[in-house]
């Protein structure tokens, strides 16, 4: 049987977006599910981020696959749907399948006449069973998939929903992603100037429950790991000098991290690798970080999120700016290239942008990715804000467009947002210099690709620096279907600003200073929303402050 | 089934699965919430094709070998001129849509043609004027009548989603039914001609040439919509990675004021050389 797996573009080429400008990782989701069937079936992977658009239609028309599958994050929803709709038109006999985060967290979005199967949750076992069943019944074009857990399929006019599939307990049991299927793109994946970069995963899930993130919901708040041996096997199997470990949170279990270091040291593996992890782990474990650095770790992508503890708490980050700062110092000392994600909020004014950029410049972050706090579908934030969105166009949920009403006029807001590139330049320059001084080996490895990366990034930055780019992208797409008309920033209760609905302490003593903390409630969807329309933000704050002052006096 | 009928059934299938008819841009229009601004760019590019269509039929009519072919061509022409749409010819209907999308049909009538439309129209004029009659018939017959209902099926849901009312998108909805009718008449007409291998090949060649032109046209329209959103967007990667020097040269070119000016001048010079639609049609009629 012929199986075509398609990695869609995250947006129509040319729109704003950091992917393919700052990084491009392998389509591991596809190579992982392909590995479950590639020994028995003919499988092709098309990475549309690296192909001309006509290749997809030509492949479907000429190769005539029996099954076409694609994956989808929130911003790719329309692209994934377009891929499958086109498949149905060109090759109506092919089974159309979608999986991934968006399909798992918003399956209704994909219940379309041109989609046959929606795979929810981890795909490996489900996909393997689906392929075998389809192989057995495709001659008669029967499309019933009863008994295969973890999917929903179109059963006539209805969608049959199969029971949830339990997660694979031991990741070592899964086949290794079939990277041979993307050989033709070798050398084209990158992170900054680490070009020719392989991608692997070593764990799945995250045990934290930040309210802006859906990872923990997708993986049901469990984290599972590959054994150290398997991880290093995969690293050794990569021809590339650079490896991106795509884990949601690599730095989470000390025992496993140490076992990994031991395995790397034992086998003498010399790779440069980078990953994603929390700053509190870095701050609390400087010795482990030093060992990781000796084992080839060159970069860490972390969610710093904010320069404000109250904001971090409102986001349920369970971290502090002090730990962020300490982590930054440790990484600077070790010559680990830091990529920090920060989030500005729709209710921000100029001073808050200034404060954030100033804070970033006190750190040494090589790539400060300043994004906009966005209620992504599948998160607690989304459930709290879904009826207060200015748009339901998923392309604008890319963390670069504001889907909530802004306090500043939108043009002003985007002006301040767009200047992050220039305003954070001191941080970038210092970080680059530091990494190259501390890690001459890394400097030598990356140097040949620096002009390439800077040339691309500079072109992208021309678009990003211009605030009208953001306005052009969203022109005509705000206040469309699904959006509430006439929303203003005062209709929204922003993190940390809500009047308390519980009995939380209003005052926190810190040494001699009595500090007023903004009363807050956690944005969990299990907290009932107040029935009456909430008072505008300023009034609510004033009321809360008066109450607190009364109690204090 | 006769060989002609079998050929036509296969041809119809080939058209319905052709890349030009199922272009990814059309599928994006079908599933993504595009705004009226996007549809304005779409309409400005598409409008000349609608205006030019009757010219292909008129030219073919002059070359039609018998009354059967003339009858079919005349029937389609009569509909294009407004029979079945309250006397409004199809370009008038399309102008209403273009204006509803925020465009200016009068300005489009007077202005020079954009590159995607120019290439499409010239390709078709060549097919109906210079190629054997059956190739021309393949292009305007199956190449249009059998492909348009499927393409418009992708376009109409997006237009409704963008907030156009039924009257404004009348041009598109009318074609869903009308082209089905035209397609049926056409099949009857073609069945008479496609009884030899050579005739079948001619019809197929013309059809595929039209669909290939259609594919390039949609490429161009999509590029125009993207350029409208992000005029200074990064240049997309191709199937082969660019060399470092190429990337650096592109950046230097994009970043220099001279580079930009040269590119603007080149574009406007190229654009100025394009004819207006009226000039192109007149030239074509004179030659025809």
Summarize the entry for a quick read.
The complex is a heterodimer of chains A (553) and B (288). In chain A, 37% of the residues lie in helices and 16% in strands.
Global structural class of chain A: alpha/beta
According to CATH, the homologous superfamily of chain B is Heme oxygenase-like
Q: CATH architecture of chain B, please? A: Up-down Bundle
Roughly how much helix do the residues of chain B carry, as a percent range? over 70%
Q: Could you tell me the CATH topology label of the largest domain in chain A.
A: pyruvate-formate lyase- activating enzyme
Number of helical elements of chain A: 21
Radius of gyration of chain B: 20 Å
Characterization of this structure:
- The complex is a heterodimer of chains A (553) and B (288).
- Chain A is built from 21 helices and 20 strands.
- Chain A has 553 residues and is of the alpha/beta class.
- Chain A has three domains: 2-161, Response regulator (Rossmann fold, 3-Layer(aba) Sandwich), CATH 3.40.50; 186-468, pyruvate-formate lyase- activating enzyme (Alpha-Beta Horseshoe), CATH 3.80.30; 496-552, no CATH class.
- In chain A, the strands form five sheets. Chain A has a seven-stranded mixed beta sheet, sandwiched between helices. A six-stranded parallel beta sheet of chain A has the order 11-14-15-16-17-18. In chain A, strands 2-9-10 form a three-stranded antiparallel beta sheet, with no helix packed on it.
- In chain A, strand 4 (67-71), helix 3 (77-90) and strand 5 (95-99) form a beta-alpha-beta unit.
- The model of chain A is unreliable at 499-538 (pLDDT under 50).
- Chain B is mainly alpha-helical and 288 residues long.
- Chain B has a single domain (3-234, 280-287), classed as Heme oxygenase-like (Heme Oxygenase, Chain A).
- Chain B is built from 14 helices and no strands.
- In chain B, helix 2 (24-31) runs parallel beside helix 9, helix 3 packs parallel to helix 7 and helix 12 (244-255) crosses helix 13.
- The longest helix of chain B is centred in the C-terminal third of the chain and has 33 residues, at 197-229.
- Chains A and B meet through helix 2, helix 3, helix 19 and helix 20 of A and helix 2, helix 3, helix 9, helix 11 and helix 12 of B.
């Amino acid at each position: 049987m012929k199986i075509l797996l398609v990695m869609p573009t995250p947006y129509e080429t040319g729109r704003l977006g950091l992917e393919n400008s700052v990084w491009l990782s392998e389509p591991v989701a596809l190579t992982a599910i392909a590995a479950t069937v590639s020994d028995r079936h003919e499988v092709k992977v098309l990475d549309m981020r690296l192909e001309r658009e006509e290749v997809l239609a030509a492949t479907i028309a000429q190769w005539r696959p029996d099954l076409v599958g694609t994956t989808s994050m929130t911003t790719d929803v329309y692209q994934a749907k377009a891929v499958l709709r086109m498949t149905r038109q060109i090759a109506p006999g092919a089974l159309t399948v979608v999986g991934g985060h968006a399909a798992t967290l918003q399956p209704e979005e994909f219940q379309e006449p041109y989609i046959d199967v929606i795979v929810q949750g981890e795909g490996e076992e489900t996909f393997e069973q689906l392929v075998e069943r389809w192989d057995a019944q495709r001659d008669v074009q029967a499309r019933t998939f009863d008994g295969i857990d973890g999917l929903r399929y179109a059963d006539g006019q209805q969608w049959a929903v199969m029971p949830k599939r339990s997660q694979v307990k031991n990741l070592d049991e899964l086949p290794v992603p079939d990277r041979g299927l993307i050989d033709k793109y070798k050398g084209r994946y990158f992170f900054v100037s680490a070009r020719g970069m392989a991608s692997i995963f070593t764990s799945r899930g995250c045990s934290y429950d930040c309210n802006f993130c859906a990872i923990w919901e997708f993986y049901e708040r469990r984290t599972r790991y590959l054994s150290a041996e398997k991880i290093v096997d995969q690293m050794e199997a990569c021809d590339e000098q650079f490896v991106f470990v795509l884990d949601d949170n690599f730095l989470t279990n000390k025992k496993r991290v140490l076992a990994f270091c031991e395995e790397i040291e034992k086998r003498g593996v010399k790779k440069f690798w980078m990953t994603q992890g929390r700053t509190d782990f870095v701050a609390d474990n400087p010795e482990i970080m030093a060992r990781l650095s000796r084992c080839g770790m060159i970069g860490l992508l972390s969610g710093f999120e904010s320069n404000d503890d109250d904001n971090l708490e409102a986001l349920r980050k369970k971290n502090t700016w002090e730990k962020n700062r300490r982590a930054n110092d440790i990484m600077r000392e070790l010559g680990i290239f830091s990529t920090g994600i920060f989030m500005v909020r729709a209710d921000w004014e100029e001073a808050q942008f200034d404060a954030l950029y100033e804070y970033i410049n006190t750190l040494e972050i090589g790539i400060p990715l300043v994004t906009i706090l966005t209620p992504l579908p599948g998160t607690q934030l989304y459930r709290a804000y879904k009826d207060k969105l200015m748009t339901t166009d998923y392309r604008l949920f890319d963390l670069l467009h504001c889907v909530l009403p802004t306090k500043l006029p939108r043009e002003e807001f985007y002006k301040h947002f767009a200047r992050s590139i220039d305003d954070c330049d001191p941080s970038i320059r210092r970080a680059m210099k530091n990494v190259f001084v501390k890690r001459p080996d890394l400097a030598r490895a990356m140097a040949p690709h620096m002009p390439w990366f800077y040339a691309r990034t500079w072109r992208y930055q021309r678009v990003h620096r211009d605030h009208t780019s953001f306005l052009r992208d969203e022109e005509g797409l705000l206040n469309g279907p699904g959006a509430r008309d006439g929303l203003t920033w005062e209709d929204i209760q922003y993190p940390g600003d809500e009047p308390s609905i519980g009995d939380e302490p209003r005052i926190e003593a810190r040494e001699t200073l009595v500090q007023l903390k903004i009363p807050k409630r956690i944005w969990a969807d299990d907290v009932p929303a107040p029935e009456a329309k909430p008072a505008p933000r300023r009034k609510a704050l004033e009321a809360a402050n008066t109450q607190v002052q009364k109690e204090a006096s | 089934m006769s060989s002609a009928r079998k050929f036509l059934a296969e041809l119809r299938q080939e058209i319905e699965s052709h890349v030009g008819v199922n272009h990814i841009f059309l599928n994006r229009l079908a599933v993504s919430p595009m705004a009226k601004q996007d549809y304005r760019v779409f309409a400005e590019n598409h409008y000349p094709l609608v205006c030019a269509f009757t010219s292909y039929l008129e030219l073919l009519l002059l070359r039609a070998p018998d009354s059967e072919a003339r009858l079919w061509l005349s029937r389609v022409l009569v509909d294009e001129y407004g029979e079945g749409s309250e006397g409004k010819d199809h370009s008038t209907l399309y102008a209403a849509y273009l204006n509803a999308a925020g465009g200016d049909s009068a300005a489009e009538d007077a202005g020079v043609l954009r590159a995607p439309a120019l290439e499409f129209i010239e390709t078709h004029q060549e097919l109906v004027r210079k190629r054997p009659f059956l190739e021309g018939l393949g292009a305007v017959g199956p190449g249009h009548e059998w492909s348009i209902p499927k393409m418009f099926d992708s376009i109409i849901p997006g237009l409704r989603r963008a907030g156009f009312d039924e009257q404004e998108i009348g041009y598109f909805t009318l074609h869903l039914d009308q082209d089905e009718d035209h397609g049926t008449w056409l099949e009857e007409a073609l069945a008479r001609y496609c009884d030899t291998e050579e005739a079948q090949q001619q019809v197929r060649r013309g059809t595929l040439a039209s669909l290939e032109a259609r594919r390039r046209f949609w490429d161009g329209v999509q590029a125009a919509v993207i350029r409208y959103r992000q005029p200074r967007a990064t240049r997309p990667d191709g199937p082969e990675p660019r060399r470092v020097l190429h990337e650096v040269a592109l950046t230097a070119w994009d970043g220099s004021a001279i580079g930009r000016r040269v590119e603007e001048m080149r574009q406007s010079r190229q654009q100025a050389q394009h004819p207006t639609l009226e000039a192109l049609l007149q030239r074509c009629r004179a030659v025809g």
